[in-house]
Amino acid sequence: MLSDIQIAQQTTLKPITEIAAQLDICADELELYGKYKAKLSDELSKRVSSNKDAKLILVTAINPTPAGEGKTTTTCGLGQAMAKIGKKAIIALREPSLGPVFGIKGGAAGGGYSQVLPMEDINLHFTGDMHAITAANNLLCAMIDNHIHQGNPLGIDQRRILFKRCLDMNDRALRQTVCSLGGKINGFPREDGFQITVASEVMAILCLASDISDLKARLGRILVGYTVDNKPVYAKDLKAEGAMTALLKDALKPNLVQTIEATPAVMHGGPFANIAHGCNSVRATKLAMKLADYCITEAGFGADLGAEKFLDIKCRYAGLNPSAIVIVATCRALKYNGGVPKAETGNENVEALKKGIVNLGVHIENMRKFGVPVVVAINRFGTDTEAELKLIEEYCIEKGADFALSDVFANGGNGGVELAEKVVAACEKPANFAPIYDAEADIKTKIETIAREIYRADGVNYTTAAEKAIKEIEALGAANLPVCVAKTQYSMSDDPTLLGAPTGFKITIRDLKLSNGAGFIVVYTGDIMTMPGLPKVPAAERIDVDQQGVISGLF
Q1: Can you give the pTM of this predicted structure?
Q2: Residue 518: phi, psi to the nearest 5?
Q3: Are 144 and 180 in contact (CB under 8 A)?
Q4: Measured between alpha carbons, how far is 41 from 82 in angstroms, rounded to an integer?
């Protein structure tokens, strides 16, 4: 059996100019990065701005497990299947982060015969967007410390600097650091720390900015800290937003690539969904919607995280109205939610499946609360039995949810034809999309609405630090922003060990942080880290390159 990277390496790619031509994009509207990657120019965005919008389809999933769900694979396969049934479709995805690539997951561009290519480039440096975001973030950090070193005319309180450095790599040793050691010439020592690039506010800003002017304005609004007189200090006070925008000028442009079956794919931005808002950029999605009849996008982790944030944050800001939501589920993952160890999820266990399938049920019910038709994609694995698949199908019927078996990993677009037909039919049904809470509501009301309606919690507890943070955010006049909950992806609750559909729990809010430039309030629950660590056996140990430059082990 071929690995994902071997399948990718055996595929004959089409020149990116041919992929662009499928979308009626002219060669001079591309900024080429070799033969198979290109950035889409601002001129293209302007030219197609009056085109009719495509039907927008969101792909999400049940809560993720070590057994895997195949959300990106399903997204790619669905795009390929749309072509099989004669539909003009495009997919819009996030860019992978180097943290997971070298950490637990390995590559992150789909799998089997439903991948986005060139897979090695996408998973590694791609077009440099991640590096640009890292550089812009760390430029602001350098300007903060330089300002203090050069006399500190703003009176910044070194104990209350909120903005952290970042690195697109899992490195737990950098979570908490001390900088500026080594004497007077190196500045004033202070506590500092790093977060992973995909959790940074600069990443969120890039993904939510509508154009370069909006990008610059958002960067200027970043709250970097407070003065000794307890006054807020913003990036614009340090005159940093212009240089940061210069670093991000090209990174703001979406990237065009292709699937294994030459379906056009736009990849841009990469915020995590457990600690950020988990969606690709507004610019990429809106541009993709002008280039085809169906735009298939994805939100990270389970529907309680990525989908909720896509619908409550991204759609709210961008004015997007999704036509359908696809929830990916697998027998293996549902059995894991029913208490089966990962090593045994390939064995038939109908009783465990019955116990764990409630996780799927909660996500179906939750997505319907947004007023959008739902289709369940049963992502088929070779170990699935007919009894197990039949149980999921019967459960979907009981829930009144459309469903389809999906075999896109093994069969590419041909394995997703039934799913594509069901999704097209769902897009023709009435959709009355609305966010689940009013942004003008107070902060606690928004948090408690998500906790009650999405997580199914009995209530919310707030630490002293969280109460203090809420008052500070209110004092800054930012209480009317949406909330972005940082929560474990493994459970509907804030406890990763509570699988399935837990009840009788409360969510504990330990802290809040204002992402003023991004335009949302980050709400921290549980032990979520904004700088992950590598596992005991990182994926990096399996990755190699031979004398001919051929990479192996990426996935």
Answers
A1: 0.95
A2: -65, -35
A3: no
A4: 26
